[in-house]
Design brief:
single chain, alpha/beta, Nucleotidyltransferase, domain 5, 2 domains, 5-stranded mixed β-sheet, 41% helix, 19% strand, globular
């Protein structure tokens, strides 16, 4: 008999559940929360309430889509950190209850570790060691992966994340939330070299995006609404180009320092076409082997929690029922 795991992800505004058997994803269900759009960002209280509404039907749908029963499960995996504490609590308490009622192990998963291991889901997988550029709304990291559970952060942002830079810039441009994907859409029609924005010079492998955001803010404050509207595509393309170049320059430095030439990306911003195309072009130029997850495994999802939970199950890394979620936690 194989190892079958139900995974639950509730770190922010996506309620997700997935089932995997021996690392193969059988189902991956996600319920999004449109309620936040009118506020221009995620409202934590509304997010936790929506998780409470969604979690039972989402888990039920994942179980049915996988064509299994609860009695077939060998463990329950869940996101324990980092994230919005109210959202995490909903998933944690549900996972605890199910683990207790079924008398099967409970597996806590770090959200960012799971993003990295999303690269182990596709058929075309990297071998170890590999480097992973993990880019999301709250995190920007370069991770050296020596095995599924031996992951080391060798570079990270010292202030803001790349995803936040996308979303805050979109807001400055008057685009609705979530703005990052809209910048990507407009950028496809614009000139990436039309406008020049600041690229912070941070030593070693760390990142900074606060200076870029300030550079964009000061530039836009000097412009008229008509100028911004008529140059929207070029502005989006230029901002996206700047962010992607900051990311890729650090990745080149990381490859040179580690001599690891298998390179992956992960996290919500890895769905950005500019980053994906830029990495593929850079990889071809440098002779790297590049791995890019399917779009469904880039943004928050439970399949990445399931694959991480599977590897933790193999090492018998279980949680007690006294485990509590954490808004921020080290790996």
């Amino acid at each position: 008999m194989g190892v079958t795991i139900l995974a639950i992800e509730s770190s922010c505004d996506e309620t997700a559940a997935a089932v995997c058997t021996d690392g193969a994803i059988l189902s991956n269900i996600i319920a999004s929360q449109a309620v936040h759009e009118q506020y221009g960002g995620v409202v934590p209280e509304l997010a936790s309430r929506a998780h409470m509404q969604h979690i039972v039907p989402v888990v039920d749908q994942a179980i049915k889509a996988a064509n299994i029963g609860l009695s077939d499960l060998n463990a329950i995996a869940f996101t324990k950190a980092p994230g919005l504490i109210g959202s995490l609590l909903v998933g944690t308490q549900f996972a605890k209850s199910l683990s207790l009622s079924l008398q099967i192990p409970l597996i806590g998963v770090h959200h960012m570790q799971a993003h990295v291991l999303a690269n182990l889901i596709p058929t075309h997988q990297p071998s170890f060691p590999f480097l992973c550029l993990t880019v999301s709304g709250g995190h920007t990291q370069i991770v050296l992966a020596k095995s599924p559970l031996d992951l080391t952060v060798i570079g990270e942002t010292i202030d803001d994340a790349a995803g936040e830079a996308f979303d805050k810039t979109a807001k400055l441009l008057g685009l609705p939330y979530p703005g990052g994907p809209l910048i990507d859409q407009y950028a496809k029609q614009g000139d990436p070299l039309k406008f020049k924005f600041a690229e912070p010079q941070i030593p070693d492998l760390n990142f900074s995006f606060s200076g870029l955001k300030t550079s964009v803010l000061y530039f836009l404050q000097k412009q008229t609404p008509e100028f911004i509207a008529s140059n929207l595509a070029d502005l989006c393309a230029s901002v996206q180009h700047t962010i992607v170049q900051i990311l890729l320059k650090k990745l080149v430095k990381a490859v040179n320092q580690t001599n690891v030439k298998q390179v992956c990306i992960a996290g919500g911003v890895s769905a950005n076409s500019g980053l994906r195309n830029g990495l593929l072009a850079l990889g071809a130029k440098k002779g790297w082997e590049v791995f890019i997850p399917d779009f469904s495994y880039c943004t928050d999802n439970a399949a990445m929690i399931a694959i991480t939970g599977y590897h933790k199950f193999l090492q018998q890394q279980f949680e007690s029922l006294s485990v509590n979620p954490s808004a921020r936690a080290e790996w």
